[in-house]
Amino acid sequence: MKANNKTLPNTNITLKEFKELLFEHFKAYPSMRTDYKKNVFVVGETYYDKIEIKQNKLCTFCDSLGIKYKKSIGYYFSKCVVIALN
What we know:
Blueprint: H1 15-26, E1 31-35, E2 40-44, E3 46-48, E4 51-53, H2 55-65, E5 70-73, E6 79-84
Antiparallel strand pairs: 1-2, 2-6, 3-4, 5-6
């Protein structure tokens, strides 16, 4: 998809690479979706057996990569981070 080739703001990291980094860091995929109308990528809190991916952990991860994001509330009132796509 074209969205996977888009770079994240202030970085040279593509969306595809970011998804791979998320998996490497958390050892699981968080809830993710691309909103094509708003041109944003949304990563939500996700819970698996013995794995909790919370908004604060997602924020810390984005901060470590220098990725700009906004905290938000997603579907079903779950917390998420929203990243604009270039």
